């Protein structure tokens, strides 16, 4: 509902991303997902007295990587704080987070919507530990607690209230997921909860500058649901205001069964988390060299490669396809080192190779054919030794099961090398024309469409070796 | 700072503690004493003094990302007041 464009939605997102470290943020327990309950636990995770947490260096590096990828300013002096609240899956009674000194400040993420391209402003990215898991339906009388997840490192990526439609939010989360996967800090799996999103939504009359009362929507376990929940929430709020009702500040949850949201708690009293510096952890100082080292190891980012590919002459669409994920881009990068026929490489990668990748449910880096082999394949097609359809239908399958062989070798072994010498082609042309005298008469009477039939027939008798261009040329001469 | 019933109620809510009405008076007096004692520090002019957050000068005590130091599930569950062979158990948080 957009009552004649009277209202404007204001959306801010908080995305939690689990970092792909081996161990937890402050203890050596495994941080992996899916283990038997309560098997990744230590006295530190269990909050036993007398234990001393110690910060995981890799988690700090990953947070900085994300900050650099999002154009943030990196905080040089960092310390953790305790965020105090009680919940059964929070063993210590506080969450260790970065309250005062988020490791990354400001920054932005570029998004593309149907209408425009723009930067979504970030407020901060900070490090914190995850809570455990409460299981409410395993026991009739009790809630069961699994602390495997407690202490797993997270980064929380917080935007400014800077988005104005569900579509923008959708594109933003899509971009964040792509980015965390690209730089390898998080697997981006929303269903398993390694990437989680909360949306703060409010509406106001267009032209207003103050923010309306916000509602926080949780439990958005897919990017589609982020969009649906925000759409629903905007409609609900506009409906309320139109009816003269007052929006109250609430936390709501998305119900994926009917695409609606429902209130889980009213925020009548502001939460009082009583933050204070975590005395058990020493502050950490980031030097220029440390940050520069991480910057140097950061892979080329999609937007950089996108610009590069457009300079190579690829269309916007093709360039976008090649930056779809890191494995695709890396494959393309390697292939173009061996062949300058960029468009042909794209056609293979979006055509026959994409099909193989999809069928085998793998990514490009797992493909049995190397980028060099692809480039060779492109080259023999370019040189007219085999045509594209023969290369993709006959040569490719052999290469897939026998990646050691080169395309030219395979084409030779299968006797597929296209013959462009006029003598051979002339023989095939004569053979075909002799076989179909009636069609020749029809053609001569004006049924020029039959040329395709002749060419097809020549392909057959030559077993694909006749260069179709040459064959057509000869046919036209003979039938004149 | 004036310690009143409201403050005691708020703090007990945050601490998840309940007091009998007769205990409240004593708590109020004690708390008032403690706060007044600490408030004495406010008399000191700290303009331009950076807050001291950590008693130690140590920084950058970081560990490498290695899996070690876990205990078994049985050991972990050993001291739990309520448990089964897999989980810690607590009173129902959400009623379905």
3D architecture notes:
The complex is a heterodimer of chains A (480) and B (96). The mean pLDDT of chain A is 92. Chain A has 480 residues and is of the alpha+beta class. Chain A has helices at residues 57-69, 166-183, 223-242, 288-297, 302-311, 316-322, 326-335, 342-350, 352-360, 371-382, 388-401, 407-413, 422-435, 437-444, 451-461, 468-478; strands at 7-18, 55-56, 73-74, 77-78, 81-84, 94-97, 104-105, 108-112, 117-129, 133-135, 142-146, 153-159, 195-205, 215-220, 250-255, 260-266, 276-277, 284-285. Chain A contains 16 helices and 18 strands. In chain A, strands 1, 3, 7, 8, 9, 12, 13, 14, 15 and 16 form a ten-stranded mixed beta sheet that branches. Chain A has a three-stranded antiparallel beta sheet with strand order 6-5-17, with no helix packed on it. In chain A, strand 8 (108-112) and strand 9 form a beta hairpin. Chain A has three domains: 7-290, no CATH class; 300-413, no CATH class; 422-478, Orthogonal Bundle (Arc Repressor Mutant, subunit A). Chain A is elongated. Chain A is 38% helix and 20% strand. Chain B has 96 residues and is mostly helical. Chain B has a domain at 5-42: Orthogonal Bundle (Histone, subunit A). Chain B has three helices and two strands; from the N terminus they run H-H-E-H-E. Chain B has helices at 5-14, 21-39, 73-77, and strands at 62-63, 88-91. Chain B is flat, with a radius of gyration of 22 Å. The two termini of chain B are 44 Å apart. The relative contact order of chain B is 0.07. The interface between A and B is large, with 51 and 37 residues.
